[in-house]
Specification:
36% helix, Translation Initiation Factor IF3, 25 strands, alpha+beta, five-stranded mixed β-sheet, Rossmann fold, BirA Bifunctional Protein, domain 2, 490 residues, globular
């Protein structure tokens, strides 16, 4: 493994890419804008996925799968929706290739042109609602609470590993309800789940709120969001939950017979998080040594490195560690014994530090003599020896401490760089330094657009717990209708 990464203070974007590639999280795919998620990075995503999936199922949702290919006519049925995705759609026009006339390579077979062009899934509202049209007839068919784990394609011009790629993995929930209140409750419930997982599992503090009209999802009535601060003080939209009203029901004519024998349109939601959460983990917690992974999502929570002196050392160490490893397995800790024999301990230390493993354990002859194991924490770099017989339970507690400490560190960072502004000059000065600006907004799209044009900062969320008493709009000076967070963002 190559040594070192570019310091964050020197070039944050390069640091981010260095960490991903040197920690073997991902690599660039052969098609511009795509990425290959390597096993270690996919292990992080699997842990995130399993955490969400468990909570979705506990709240009555079920998984299904819908086609990758969507008829072009479906996309055009919901006007706002197509407007939001038109520039990002990949389109299939032909079905096969044939040998080139000169016998070198292949060309598209012009005789295989499709009668109707196909859109490669940028999101699934349209194809799912075409199916709901078939499945929903009566109030007895509602609610439908379906989630899908899938890949989507959005042809991005500017890409960055995990944060914005032409193809990415995500989950997308799509639900159908008999009433507006039930659908709105669903949207808020999913937002709560997103916040819970981000904060309690990924150790990333988030703010919750509503998107402004300019920032909301194409086709939504309201978009709820969670926003997180990255290590360079920019904002990242970490998850969204949309109340879609009856827009897609109207587009696909999805109606149901009520208990009173009247006919009404169905109410809808959609909600999703993606592999950009892996990017968020890196940017929130990473340092100049590489990754720092919260224990709850780390593929390896404890790495054990034997200090091998001779041919008999490894066998002796493995025998010494057997009770410890058995107990770790018993209590469900994910560990790895790095018993590679032709690689130096120093190289292993650097490798696993780069990969952000929460706890590193070292065991050599002196440790065996004293009946101890030597432990190093990745979050604080603290080093301590523990008696072998109690080491497993001690490290289980230590993992919990590390999880809490990493959240507290991230929260402290966010609070340090969250500011209040009551006039536009102060606002512009603060936004140049980076961070979240908490301030008033008059609700006028023109004010929002002007601030964005002049400062490159956008309204990240309209705070659900906002306080507007005596507040003025940061731009117009008019009475504020909302308290918002402005920031520059990914």
């Amino acid at each position: 493994m190559s040594k070192g990464v570019t310091p964050k203070s020197e070039d944050y974007a390069r640091w981010y890419t260095d960490v991903i590639t040197k920690a073997e999280m991902a690599d660039y795919g052969p098609v511009k804008g795509t990425m290959v998620i390597r096993p270690y990075g996919f292990g992080v995503w699997e842990n995130i996925k399993e955490t969400f999936d468990k909570r979705f199922k506990e709240t009555g949702h079920v998984n299904a799968y819908f086609p990758l290919f969507i008829p072009k006519s479906f996309i055009s049925k919901e006007a706002d929706h197509i407007e939001g995705f038109a520039k990002e759609c990949a389109v299939v026009t032909h079905t096969r290739l044939k040998s080139a006339p000169d016998g070198k390579g292949v060309i598209v077979d012009p005789d295989s042109k499709l009668e109707e062009e196909i859109i490669v899934r940028p999101t699934s509202e349209t194809v799912i609602w075409s199916m709901y049209k078939k499945w929903i007839n009566s109030y007895r068919d509602l609610p439908i609470l379906i989630n899908q784990w899938a890949n989507v394609v959005r042809w991005e011009m500017r890409t960055r590993l995990f944060l914005r790629t032409s193809e990415f993995l995500w989950q997308e929930g799509h639900t159908a309800h008999a009433t507006e209140q039930e659908a709105r409750d669903e949207s808020k419930q999913m937002l709560d789940i997103y916040q819970e997982v981000l904060e309690q599992v990924l150790a990333i503090p988030v703010l919750t709120g509503l998107k402004s009209e300019a920032e909301r999802f194409a086709g939504a009535v309201d978009t709820y969001c969670i926003e997180a601060m990255m290590g360079d003080k920019k904002a990242l939209q970490a998850g969204t939950s949309h109340y879609l009203g009856q827009n897609f029901a109207k587009a696909f004519d999805v109606k149901f017979q009520t208990e009173n024998n009247t006919e009404e349109l169905v109410y809808a939601t959609s909600w999703g998080v993606s592999t950009r959460l892996v990017g968020a983990l890196i940017m929130v917690h990473g340092d100049d040594k590489g990754l720092r992974l919260p224990p709850k999502v780390a593929p390896v929570q404890i790495v054990i490195i034997p200090i091998i002196k001779n041919d008999n050392s490894l066998a002796e160490i493995e025998k010494f560690l057997h009770p410890f490893l058995t107990e770790l397995k018993k209590i469900g800790i994910r560990f790895k014994l790095d018993d590679r024999q032709k690689i130096s301990p120093g190289f292993k230390f650097n490798e696993w530090e780069m990969k952000g493993v929460p706890i590193r354990v070292e065991v050599g002859s002196r440790d065996m003599e004293s009946g101890t194991v030597f432990c190093a924490r990745r979050d604080t770099s603290e080093k301590t020896s523990y008696k072998l017989e109690s080491a497993a339970s001690t490290m289980s507690q230590l993992l919990e401490e590390i999880q809490i400490n990493m959240f507290d560190q991230a929260l402290e960072f966010r609070e340090k760089y969250t500011f209040s502004a009551d006039n536009y000059e102060k606002f512009k000065s603060l936004i140049e330094k980076g961070g979240f600006i908490r301030c008033g907004w008059d609700g006028n799209p023109e004010s929002e657009a002007t601030v964005k044009k002049e400062t490159q900062a956008t309204i990240r969320c309209i705070l659900l717990d906002g306080k507007i008493k005596d507040k003025k709009c940061i731009y117009s000076g008019n009475p504020a209708k909302h308290e918002v967070i402005f920031a520059r963002a990914y």
